[in-house]
Structure formats: structure tokens, C-alpha cells
Amino acid sequence: MPALPPGLSRVVVLRALMLGDLLCATPALRALRAGLPQARITLVGLPWARELATRLASVDEFVELPGWPGLPERPAAPRAEQLAFVAAMRARRWHLALQLHGSGAVVNPLLAAFGARLNAGFAAPGAPRPGADRRRFVRWPERGSEVERLLALTDALGLPRRGEQLDFPLHDTDRANAAALLGDGRWVIVHAGAQLPSRRWAPERFAAVADALAERGLRIALTGTDGERALVASVAAAMRSPALDLAGRSDLWTLGALVERAALVVCNDTGLSHVAAALGTPSVVVASGSDVARWAPADAARHRVLWHAVECRPCAHAVCPTAHECAAGVAVGTVIDAAVGALETER
Asked: Do you know which InterPro entries this protein is assigned to (predicted)?
């Protein structure tokens, strides 16, 4: 791959995905910052990512990507809005555009439309590559963790690694907000939500795990977004022990501080598992349908990922079309044992 030339001061990175996806990109963003220390780095992402981007030392600016055809995270914006976005991006006269989004079938033409002097990124077989920059597009890795996959591009570009730890910068005000919600005690965060129903373990199973931990003297906090209030309430209703329902009561940063303060997190394979990994809080993760080798945290001793092998994994369905065998195959007792083991290890 050709070396990057000097003088690249305007750099744009495309990674328009969800929380866990962006956290897994933070090691690659640090490598980009280390290799191009004088560059102004702009992240193009989904609206939610603005608050994370503003805290990352590896990012200087955030630009919101409108809903784009072929990207499922949000509905496609009107054509006029799409054209205005592309025109605004082209006017920035980027020196380098970096595609950290994925395999490239949909997003490589979008990246090329930014009009950068140089383009680089990933391309699966058959995915388009901007003509003059074909050699700066590496084959999308089919194996390895998401962190390692993304670092494959920065490695190929000659950008120095600055570790593989995920970044989730907390402030003292976040910790104060979390302390006001939790108070004293040894807490377990139980997070039953996930963006896709196919990624959710059953609420009554989370409740059974929470009860078992409460019987061992742990205090239980149930977390979730405002849209997950009913789901979290169903966990609380299925429990015998009291629990603190925090659904919809914390922003992203307070939630992170709650995780940092906790003795353990029990959750689905979702963004919160990556927050726990970033903050070093032990976790037990039930991985329903996901590609475990790709998304499991690197520290397998601290973050215990439980999953049941079925032929249809990894799953591309938002809602399981069968009996959700991958989730049903993870027994409550297995999760309780993993949680107790994690708590004993961390004492």
C-alpha cells in the first residue's frame, strides 16, 4: 500500500453506526491521531454519536450523516437533503477520507462523493473502490475482533498503534450524578435491553439472575433507555427482590458512571457491554445471535461472554423467525455461575 504523503491536515472518517461499533473504532482513531498529529480529524456518524465524539481526544469535529439509502440505522433522508450533505462535504476539500464503517458495498461510493484528495478504507470482494485509490483499500477482514479488523486498515496505512483499549471518557460530574442515583452498597447493573429484539435474552431470565445475586447481598439496578421502560418494568415485575429501576433516568455519561461504580454488569451483547469493557467493570454478557469472535471484549477473564451454538449464527434478523434458540440455550444457572465467579474473582 502506498505511504500516506505529508501535509494531510483535513481528515474525515466515516463510521455511522451504534455505540458499541463506535467504541470499537476508538483504537483505530487513536492510531490515526498518532500518525497524523497535526491533522484536524472529523468524524461523520449518526446523531447520537455527537456527544461521544466531543469527548474523544482523537476527534476534533463531528458531522451528522443524514439517513442514507442502504444503511439501516435510520430512514433515508429526502433526496434534497442527501445532495446538500454531499455538496457541503465536497466544499470542505478534504485531504484524506477514511472509511472505517465496514465492508464497503454501500459506503465506498458515499466516501468517494466526499471529494477528498485521497481515499482509504475497506472493500470486500466485489465492493467498489475509488479508482485512483484502489491500493489504499484493504480487503475487509472476515475474522478477528472488530477492534483488530479496524486496526488492520490503520496498520496498512503505516499509522502507529496506541493500544487496543476502548475509550469512554468520564468526567467527575458524571460520577457525581451516578453516585446520587445509586448511593452506597455493592451494586450490579442489570441491562436487559438491546437495539434488536433478536439480541435480547428473556426478561424473566434476567430477573432470575438478579434475584440470585440479590440473595447474595448485592444491590440491583435495572438500566435502560427511555424507550425500554416497559422492558425494564417487566424485569422488575418478575423479580422477588427489590431493585432500583433507572430506565430513562440517565444520559449516556451517567450510565457509564453507573457502570464504572458497579461491581458487575449483566447484559446482552450490546453497547453497554463495550462500555463495561472500556471502563474495566467485570461483566457477564449473554450473546444472542451475534458473532462472538467479532464482538466479545478482549479480556475474557473479566468479561464472560455466554452463548449457545446454533447453525443460524451470526443472525441478520431484527426479530428471530424461529424459537430464538440461541437465547433459550443459555441457561439461567450458567449466567448465575458466571456472575458469582466474576464477583469472587474481583474481590
From this structure: Glyco_trans_9, LPS_LOS_Heptosyltrfase
Distance (Å, rounded) from C-alpha 82 to C-alpha 335? 45
Q: Which domains does the chain have, with CATH numbers?
A: 10-156 (3.40.50.2000), 172-345 (3.40.50.2000)
Neighbours of 63 (CB within 10 A): 18
Report residue 139 as a C-alpha cell. Answer: 480487503
Kindly tell me if the per-residue pLDDT of 346 is higher than 80: no
pLDDT of residue 294 exceeding 80? yes
Please say whether the beta carbons of 106 and 73 come within 8 A. Answer: no
- Residues forming a β-bridge with 64: 45
Q: Given this model, what pLDDT does residue 316 score?
A: 87
- For residues 127 and 103, the answer to whether their CB atoms sit within 8 Å is yes
DSSP class of 161: P
Question: What is the structure's pLDDT at 136?
Answer: 95
d(CA 239, CA 204): 8
Binned at pLDDT 50, 70 and 90, residue 347 comes out as low
| pLDDT score for 2 | 81
Angle at the Cα of 121 from the Cα atoms of 118 and 125, rounded to 5 degrees: 125
Q: What mean pLDDT is predicted for residues 146-159?
A: 97
Quote the strand ranges of 258-338, DSSP E: 264-268, 283-286, 303-306
* Conformation bin of residue 70: beta by default, left when phi > 0, alpha when psi is -120 to 50: left
